[in-house]
Design a protein that fits this description.
Oligomer: single chain
Largest sheet: 5 strands, mixed
Helix content: 10-25%
Order of helices and strands: HEEHEEEEHEEEEEEEEEEHEEHHHH
Strand order of the largest sheet: 1-9-8-3-6
Number of strands: 18
Structural class: alpha+beta
């Protein structure tokens, strides 16, 4: 009897275990691995790459002076890390003065290598340092001092022209506002009710990890240019640009009941953007009357818009036998149109759509800077120009 009870108990335990184990496995949440940040450095083939604590600090996005030490979490595979002629081992902690003497010595010409550092600070994150050898040394990106204007309690977004730059880093925050960067653009947000002058500093970096000199951005925070604000732009980084467009009578939005709306997410067509550019450049002054643009679809172009189309053809913004003014454009195409309008002799080729081989922008032989809108093809929907984007692009023209 006892033996039967014992065997029954064993069987019950076995069945319970069989039932519970799968249930336990299903209830265990998967562990999501966090991706480590990566920074990139380039160096000349068969040469030693020397680091500086200040440069590493900027690439690691740490406040100035915070990188007091770093642990070597991973050592390179095809080279060696050296400090004053002594090889650095994995797990070794290097003080700031040692980071100034840190060098990477390639032992095998593999073209690429990497190691990892973990800063010894409050926000300690292991960062991969990717290394690539190049045959020719490149110049670091160039970044100039600049100036922007915004209004009390309004954010402003600007793109900074920086040759060969892949992104921006904030070196010094402002005292009256906070700046954040996204690619080669920055958004400055004043602190509540702050007015007057402020400044912050940036540096640009390229794909090879080279840094530009420090550039200072001066900000003037004005009192609100209009008593009435766009209800759908509050807190939007493009709010100030939208307000300036309304102030100049270029894009005034619409009123729905008691609310003034800008519709920041609305896609801007080619025809709309041509009108916005020309009115911003000419200060709203009327263009010469055009009766016929010479295009094959001239009859389909509204009479009031023919002057804008003709002006765009004269500036080399569009070519071809016809034009689709209803076609959407991408942000890159909008940027190119702005740059080409400011400098018609620019050698930069027109960007093309990623959705089709024959794009809205088609560089032509002998006219590589011109854009062909005749096919009416729709570019990729992921990066289309919106009203908010257009406002950001047009703001520099209004500030001249």
């Amino acid at each position: 009897m006892n033996q039967k009870r014992f065997l029954s108990g064993v069987c019950a335990l076995a069945m319970l275990a069989a039932l519970q184990l799968p249930t336990y496995a299903k209830m265990t949440p998967p562990v999501k691995q966090q991706e480590n940040p990566v920074v990139h450095f380039e160096f000349l083939s068969n040469t030693t790459l020397c680091f500086e604590a200040d440069s590493l600090e900027k690439h690691l996005k740490l406040p100035k002076g915070e990188l007091t030490a770093a642990r070597v979490s991973v050592i390179p595979q095809y080279g060696a890390l050296m400090v004053d002629g002594v090889r650095v081992e994995r797990g070794e902690v290097l003080m700031r003065h040692q980071l100034n003497d840190l060098c990477y010595v390639p032992l095998k010409d593999n073209g690429q290598d990497w190691f990892a550092l973990t800063p010894v600070c409050e926000k300690s994150v292991c960062t991969a340092i990717r290394l690539s050898s190049v045959s020719k040394e490149k110049e670091p990106p160039k970044l100039q001092n600049s100036h922007c204007v915004t209004a009390k309690n309004m954010s402003v977004r600007h793109s900074i022209p920086a040759d060969s730059a892949a992104g921006l880093l904030v070196l010094r925050q402002g005292k009256k506002g906070y700046v954040r960067v996204d690619g080669t653009s920055y958004t400055y947000t004043p602190y509540p009710n702050s007015v007057g002058r402020d400044s912050f500093s940036l540096t640009a970096f390229d794909e090879g990890g080279r840094l530009s000199r420090e550039a200072v951005v001066t900000v003037d925070i004005e009192r609100s240019p209009c008593k009435e604000r766009f209800e759908d732009m509050r807190g939007n980084p493009s709010e100030y640009a939208a307000m300036k467009l309304r102030e100049h009578g270029i894009l005034t939005g619409e009123r729905v009941g008691n609310a003034q709306l800008f519709h920041p997410e609305k896609i801007v067509s080619l025809g709309e953007f041509l009108v916005l550019i020309e009115d911003s450049v000419n200060g709203g002054e009327p263009l010469p009357v055009c009766v016929n643009t010479g295009l094959s679809n001239d009859d389909a172009i509204p009479f009031w818009m023919k002057s804008y189309v003709q002006k765009a053809r004269e500036q080399g913004l569009i070519v071809g036998s016809s034009v689709d003014l209803e076609a959407p454009i991408t942000k890159e195409q909008g940027i190119w149109m702005m740059e080409h309008c400011a400098d018609p002799k620019s050698d930069s080729p027109a960007p093309s759509s990623s959705k089709t081989e024959q794009s809205v922008f088609v560089p032509h032989e002998g006219a590589q800077n011109q854009a062909d809108f005749s096919d009416g093809l729709t570019p990729s929907g992921e990066n289309l120009l919106t009203r908010a984007d257009a406002a950001d692009l047009l703001l520099p023209l209004l500030e001249q």
